[in-house]
Specification:
Blueprint (H helix, E strand, L loop, with lengths): L1 H16 L15 H16 L3 H9 L5 H8 L3 H30 L3 E6 L3 H6 L7 E6 L6 E10 L2 E4 L37 E3 L1
Antiparallel strand pairs: 1-2, 2-3, 3-4, 3-5
Helix pairs in contact: 2-3, 2-5, 3-5
Length: about 200
């Protein structure tokens, strides 16, 4: 009997060790600036506790799938996907670690959520959405880390991150890539690793 119990325990442990990756579902937040502020308040709270897994998980819920990108950008989506994957990979992975470090170093303790237009994104979308931004800062200061490109899709907060900076330099998949003038670069600049920028 004891042997059977021991075998059952080993099987249970084995199942846990070989289970697939945990799927984190974004909590419900209101579809307005207050909702974005609430989500970032949760991210800030996790960062203050050095809970990097929760920061990562919350950030990851804002990632758009390839199908959602095609729904939003139509034929231009396929050309934008590699850049979007790069931006979001930086935001979710390295950016989560950097946020925790910045919160600790600068003693950030406040969050803002506000409407923030991005003409490049708005023009490229085939399905329009109101855009928002979040700012993490110290309560006694106006400046901090700003995160752009947030919107609500089917009741869940998502982000384009800094994709708007690259809309005009990425050609649709149906056309050839334009060549920059002789002696110049393509105009594309690397975004900050974290996906955040220091701004008012």
């Amino acid at each position: 009997m004891r042997r059977l119990a021991f075998v059952a325990l080993l099987l249970l442990v084995g199942c846990k060790q070989h289970s697939g990756p945990r799927v984190y579902v974004q909590p419900h937040y209101a579809p307005d600036a207050n909702g974005l502020r609430a989500m970032w308040a949760d991210i800030l709270d996790a960062a203050k506790k050095d809970d990097r897994d929760r920061v990562h998980d919350l950030m990851a819920t804002t990632l758009l799938s390839d199908a959602e990108m095609r729904r939003l950008f139509g034929p231009k989506a396929d050309a934008l996907l590699p850049r979007y994957h790069q931006l979001m990979g930086n935001l979710i992975n390295r950016g989560s670690v950097e946020l925790v470090a910045n919160v600790y170093e600068h003693k950030y303790d406040a969050v803002d959520g506000f409407a923030a237009e991005d003409p490049a994104i708005a023009t490229a979308l085939v399905e329009p959405h109101a855009l928002f931004a979040a700012r993490v800062r110290k309560s006694s200061e106006d400046r901090g880390l700003r995160y752009d490109g947030y919107f609500v899709l089917d009741g869940t907060w998502k982000t384009f991150n800094q994709l708007g900076k690259f809309i005009d330099v990425v050609a649709p998949a149906t056309t050839s890539t334009p060549q920059p003038p002789s002696g110049t670069s393509s105009g594309a600049k690397s975004a900050p690793a974290s996906g955040a920028k220091t701004a008012k």
